[in-house]
Specification:
Radius of gyration: 25 Å
Strand order of the largest sheet: 1-4
Number of domains: 2
Helix content: 55-70%
Distance between the termini: 68 Å
Order of helices and strands: HEHHHHHHHHEHEHEHHHHHHHH
């Protein structure tokens, strides 16, 4: 009697049903809440949009305006004391296992909701029903599960449904996605891609890609990466149920120009994360060559450079004793010192918002000229590559 419901399934059937239902919730979070509402990367047909609103009310109790506001604040204040859920501030264990509590705490911050929650649904049903009775849906879901699957299977599937987002989204993405994984783009925050195949969490596994191009509807960028959320969006688009507004730019290359021009400048700035990623390879190349050279001529400096490898390759600024040790070690490596210094100059191209495009172009041309005159092979090669962006 305890197992009787409208559906009489074998044990594995209940497992498959539970996974399928939680996957619909994941799709709702990544497509509707994240890419559509928080970042405006696409528009959804009202039928699809309201289906996701209803489904997320039923399975999570999350309010669209609150979720979008908290996520936007995360991007605006990433890795600072104001970031609602940064492992750098709160610690990986707290974000991973209690990330949902950090979300709930921030949802009571009226200033966050007011400042970052603009443009989200504000119709009658949102104000009077979804927002007012935000947690009623999960109890409706419990009753429905009991009728459809039977009491015990229904309760177990319900527990999986309501725990799925708090753990995978609030915990894994916000925690592991800023702590462990690989980085395709050298962004200012600590975001990482957890794995290159975004299936289990709807594509959100590609978190570093997202932080590099926050307004992109597609989270995959490398040929070996897969974003199942993007697959669903393309299907909806084919059916006329979604309109993609923006995707991350894909760099194009041509023969290197003798002198960088305005088109080159625009291409470099538009693809700045790809530029920095490729420059990172130049830094790694020079680092490896210089450490190998210094092993013979200055073992102490080689050891210092090895101990600071992570910070060097990521472009992190070092202060205090570590900064002093690095400065001293770099006196023995003109090539590495030049590569590191010119990385900061290159980044300044898209940070100087007050400079005119003519000024920026002159700075880019001067950078290329000095890179090629430096005698550092990796810089010479990179300058040629830089002038080939189209």
């Amino acid at each position: 009697m305890i197992f009787s419901g409208l559906l009489d399934l074998p044990w594995w059937g209940y497992v498959v049903a539970g996974l399928a239902l939680t996957h619909v919730t994941i799709a709702g979070v990544t497509i509707y809440l994240h890419r559509c509402q928080a970042h405006r990367a696409l528009e959804l047909h009202p039928i699809v949009s309201h289906f996701f609103r209803f489904w997320l009310w039923l399975t999570t109790g999350m309010v669209t305006r609150e979720w979008a506001a908290i996520h936007r604040k995360h991007h605006a204040k990433c890795e600072t004391a104001e970031d609602p859920h940064s492992p750098k501030i709160h610690g990986i264990n707290k974000v991973l296992w209690a990330g949902v509590l950090l979300y709930v705490k921030e949802s009571y911050n009226a200033d966050t909701i007011e400042r970052y929650g603009h443009g989200t649904p504000d119709d009658w049903i949102e104000r009077k029903f979804y927002g007012r009775f935000s947690y009623a849906g999960v109890f409706v879901l419990l009753a429905v599960n009991g009728v459809v699957f039977g009491i015990l299977p229904g309760v177990l599937i319900w527990l999986a449904q309501i725990a799925w987002i708090p753990f995978w989204a609030a915990g894994v993405i916000n925690g592991v996605g800023h702590f462990f994984g690989y980085r395709s783009y050298d962004v200012a925050d600590a975001s990482t891609n957890i794995v290159p195949w975004g299936i289990l969490i709807g594509g959100e596994e590609l978190h570093n890609n997202h932080h590099a191009f926050a307004s992109s509807a597609r989270l995959s960028s490398k040929w070996y990466e897969f974003d199942i959320g993007w697959l669903y969006i393309r299907i909806l688009e084919t059916l006329g149920l979604a309109t993609v507004k923006k995707v991350a730019p894909k760099p194009r290359f041509a023969a290197p120009k003798a002198l960088a021009d305005l088109d080159t400048l625009h291409a470099v700035i538009a693809n700045r994360y790809d530029v920095f990623s490729r420059y990172g390879k130049s830094v790694k190349r020079t680092y490896a060559e210089e450490v190998a050279r210094l092993k013979q001529w200055s073992p102490r400096d080689a050891e210092i450079l090895r101990s600071l490898k992570r910070a060097l390759l990521r472009g992190q600024e070092l202060a205090g004793a570590e900064g002093a040790k690095l400065s001293e070690a770099l006196k023995s490596s003109r090539a590495l010192a030049t590569v590191i210094a010119m990385r900061q100059e290159l980044a300044a191209l898209w940070e100087r918002s007050n400079a005119s495009k003519e000024q920026l172009l002159r700075q880019l041309q001067d950078w290329c000229h000095r890179a090629e005159a430096s005698g550092v092979a990796s810089l010479v090669d990179f300058s040629h590559r830089l002038r080939s962006y189209a």
